[in-house]
Amino acid sequence: MNYRSSNPLQIMLNNKEWILADGATGTNLFNMGLSSGDAPELWNKSAPKKIKKLYKDSVDAGSDLFLTNSFGANQSRLKLHNAEKSVLELSRISAEIGREVADTSRRSVIVAGSVGPTGEIMEPIGSLSYSTAVEIFHEQAEGLKAGGVDVVWAETISAANEFEAAAEAFSLANIDWCGTMSFDTAGRTMFGITAPELVTLISKIRNKPLAFGANCGVGASDMLRTVLGFSATSNDLPIIAKGNAGIPKYSDGKIHYDGTPELMSRYATLAYDCGATIIGGCCGTTPNHLSAMRKALDGHVKGFSPKLETIAEALGDFSSISDGTDDNTPTRKRQNRRHRTK
Amino acid sequence: MMSDQEDDIVLSELNDEDLVAQMFDDLYDGLKEEIEEGVNILLEREWVPYRVLTEALVGGMTIVGNDFRDGILFVPEVLLAANAMKGGMAILKPLLIATGAPRVGKMVIGTVKGDIHDIGKNLVGMMMEGAGFEIVDLGINNSVDAYLDAIEKEKPDLLGMSALLTTTMPYMKVVIDTLIEKGMRDDYTILVGGAPLNEEFSKAIGADAYCRDAAVAVETAKMFMARKHNQMAANN
Questions:
Q1: Which residues of A touch B5 (CB under 8 A)?
Q2: Residue A311: pLDDT above 80?
Q3: Is B29 close to A34, i.e. CB distance below 8 A?
């Protein structure tokens, strides 16, 4: 028996048809008074009650799993706030508060340690070396593990080598993990990765995640097209869908997302029909959205995988005609006179 | 392809038209040394630096920009192309200054406070530079004061702000509000960009325009500069 079979998330995946994850961190912290430009992670220490409320609101709304307030708790991001020495501490506290909320809940709730991207571009295009990226992720994972998370959870990743570096770091920290990428550029990640390409990438990674998928991105429709892209492959890992509640709008000095709870509940049931089993929101998703999603999923019987037209009718148009996986993929016809092996 | 087929093109043997077409391809493929070579050849053929910039480099980067916008190229390819262009620009820049080549406009650009993402901002900077703008890049994590100091010192036509996080994008409003307070807002055209932004957000915070990508930023900046010139002409 491998160590994974006893992981609480693995047990939950075995026992439940679907798992409702949480919603936004940033949006909800703004609603509690966070100022733009400030690091949300500093609140783990300076305003732990608010972080506790963030988690608890999500659990009370029906989430079976929530992410810790540690997205940017890594060296390269905390450096901006002169807090790069606090990676371990801020990560650990984010997890400890989460542990407390989960352990006092009457339901079984998973604490997943959020690990966002480093924010730097890796070699050879950028300057961040693979080994430094591994170190950055490793440090954060150790902090989250010390605070008692059930799994670590890499999210909003765009580049393949950064995803691999995270996987290696989590293996060094000897902790189970999940990983999601953000498909926000014509159905692909900023670095051009399509949904099936993420599946291929994972098949090559030795330290397999417990589940994988997509988060953030553009709108609910795009998110589901991405999930269909995962489902169409021969992958057998559980699929995660954490989409934004619409698009950001600015009014009364606050960011607010235009996706209604009704839209997010349609999204949640369609995500399940598309093949996702860990379903949640991302930016803009408040406890109200989560309650609606919970209710919708509770009353939902799995349907056939929807066609793209059905998704567009239910949730709105896609942001691009193609997601790079079909015949509509745009290409440039060029006659390259230079013969190169590059 | 066989490696012995490499370099079967000798840039110096191409006529001007073919050379420029080849430089478009080489920019597209991010071949820095080849771009530097091409720029030098054109200069040797007595092209003025401004013509090399606009016809060879800007022409090539326009194709790259369009394909980025259309989802054909993605960030890694565009960064390589921009890097190749930078190689050409390094040769041209001193010559452009020395020859008093026309400058389209000047822009101060930076990523807002709390945000370290600068991929998009760097692309905008490079593409704008390629389009003939003078760029003052403030880097990442810029406070209101950093923006104010820079625009007071540099007197740009445009201010560009970038953010990739939903937690940092509202900071753009803080900057714009401060400019309004100081009565400086209307002295500058403010362009904003970054993954979580959109047109409506840009309007709500009082920016002049939202630019969805670097190619759009260049077009938008040019449009505002043309408008500014027309206004000045009308007032004279």
A1: 339
A2: yes
A3: no
* φ, ψ at A179 (rounded to 5°): -150, 135
List, in order, residues 6 or more apart from A252 with CB less than 8 Å away.
Answer: none
The answer to whether the Cα torsion of A60, A63, A65, A68 is positive or negative is negative
> Which architecture does CATH list for A8-315?
Alpha-Beta Barrel (3.20)
The number of residues making up chain A comes to 342
B141 chain-A contacts, CB cut-off 8 A: 80
Residue A299 distance to chain B (closest CA, Å)? 32
Rounded Cα distance, B118 and B104, in Å: 23
* Pick among B11, B86, B167 to test the A interface (most A CBs inside 10 A): B167
Residues 6+ apart with CB under 8 A from B190: B158, B159, B160, B161, B176, B179, B206, B207, B208, B209
CB nearest to A37's CB, from B6, B73, B114:
B114
The band of A1, judged by pLDDT with boundaries at 50, 70 and 90, is: very low
Domain parsing of chain A, residue ranges: 8-315
CA A155 – CA B230 distance, rounded (Å) = 48
Per-residue model confidence as pLDDT tens for chain B (236 residues): 444 445 578 999 999 999 999 999 999 999 999 999 999 999 999 999 989 988 999 889 888 888 887 889 998 998 899 889 989 999 998 998 888 777 789 999 999 998 877 878 988 888 788 778 999 999 999 999 999 999 999 999 999 999 987 778 889 999 999 999 999 999 999 999 998 888 989 999 999 999 988 888 999 999 999 998 888 887 76
Nearest CA in chain A to B163: A37
Compute the distance between CA of residue A57 and CA of residue A97 in angstroms, rounded to an integer.
13
Of B25, B75, B195, nearest to A191 by CB-CB distance is B75
Q: What is the DSSP code string of B62-75?
A: HHHHHHHHTTSS-H
The helix, strand and coil proportions of chain A, stated in percent and rounded to the nearest 5, come to 45, 15, 40
Query: Cα separations (Å) of B206 from B177, B200, B225?
Result: 8, 10, 19
Q: Does A320 touch chain B (CB under 8 A)?
A: yes
Rounded-to-integer distance, Cα A306 and Cα B197, Å: 29
**Per-residue pLDDT reduced to its tens digit, A191-211:** 999 999 999 999 999 999 999
Q: Are strands A276-281 and A19-20 parallel, antiparallel or unpaired?
A: parallel
What would the pLDDT profile of B122-179 be if each residue is shown by its tens digit? Answer: 888 887 887 789 999 999 999 999 999 999 999 999 999 999 877 788 899 999 999 9
Distance CA A114, CA A4 (A): 19
Count CA atoms within 13 Å of residue B196 on its CB side: 29
Contacts of A54 in chain B (CB under 8 A): none
